[in-house]
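cron nightly-structures :: item 1 of 1
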Amino acid sequence: MYPKVKPALARAWRDLQTVQFGVTPAHAVVLGPVDTATGAFLDLIDGTRSMELLRTQGKGMGLPDGRADEVVRRLAAAGLLDDATAGGPRAQAVRTRPEALARLGPDRGSLSLVRPRPGGDLEGVAARRAIRVHVRGSGRVGAVIASVLAGAGIGRVEVLDGGRAEAADVAPGGLGPGSVGRLRAEAARTVVREAAPGRGPRSGESGGPEPGLALVVVAPRDGLQSWAPDPQTAADWVATGIPHLYAGVLEGTGLVGPLVLPGATACAGCMERDRVERDPAWPRMLVQWRSAHRRRAGAACDLGLSTAVAGLAAAHALSFLDGELPASTSTRWEASLPTLHWHPTAVRPHPDCPCEAARVPAGQEVGA
C-alpha cells in the first residue's frame, strides 16, 4: 500500500488542532483533533512512500507507535485517502496509459470525490472506457456534447446525423470550420476522435461482445425535436429499456432533460399526453411546427446558450454513466435569454402512456 491524501481537496487549518480538507460544502471534510506532529506527518502521505516507510518516518518525527496506521485509517474512513496501487486489474490496466491519464487528471480528481474508496478514480476511468453512447445530432449542441463525453474518457461515442455540415453548425468544441461541406456523421467522428484521450477500445478488443448502449443523448439540430420529442422516435428506446437524455436550444431557450429511464420515469409519450391535456390546441400547432421545421431559415441558438446547454447535458450524462441519478432525472431544466435563469419542471408519468411508468408504486418514483 502506498497511501496518498487526495490532492483534489485543498487543505487548511481551522484552528491549531483542526484541519479542513476542501473548500466547497459539497465535499469538505473536517478532521480533528490533529496535533502539530501529525499535521506535519500528513505531508508525507503523498503516494511515494509505503506504509512501512511511513511508520519509520513518523516515528522519527515523534509520533508514538501505531499513530501512523491510526492516521491512515482515519483518512480512509473520511474518504480522504487514495492508494497508488489500489483499484484492481482494470485500474492497473489504465495505469499503463500515462498519456491518457495525464489528459484525464482533472476528471480523475472529480471521480476521486464521488468514488471515495482508494483507487476509485481509476476504477471510474476504466469503467468509462467500456461505455458506449449514441449522440443524435451534430449541431452546436450535439457535437459539443459528443466531444465532451469522448474527452472525459467515454470509450465509444457514436454521433448519428444526416446531410452535410453547414457554416451554422460550427462551434468551439464541436464541428470546426473545416467540417463545412463534409458529411455530418463523418465530421463528428473526427471531432470525437480528436477529443478522446487516446484510442478507445475497438470492437471485440476485450474478447467479449460489443457492449450495449448505455445512453442515447438526443440533441437534434432542430431544437423542436427536443422541446416536443416525437414518441415514435423514442419508441424503440422505451421498448428496449435504453436510457435517453434530451437537450437542445429552441428560440433562445435552452433545455436539458428529462433523463428518461424506460418503465420507471416519464417518456416522450407521457410528455405529449400531458401537454395535450393542458392545451387542446397543442396537437394542431405541433403538426404545423413539425412540418415547417425544414423550411425555417435560421435558428435562435447563440453560442453562449448552446455551449451552456451542451456542457450541462454532458455533465448530467457523465453523472448517470458513473452510476448516479442527476437532477435531470424526471425533470426538465430550462433557461431563456436574456436572464438565463435555470429552473426545473417536473416531468411525471402519464397513466395512459403504454410505457407503464405510471405503474411504479407510490414512493418508488425515480428522480421525481
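cron nightly-structures :: done
The first helix runs from residue 36 to 42.
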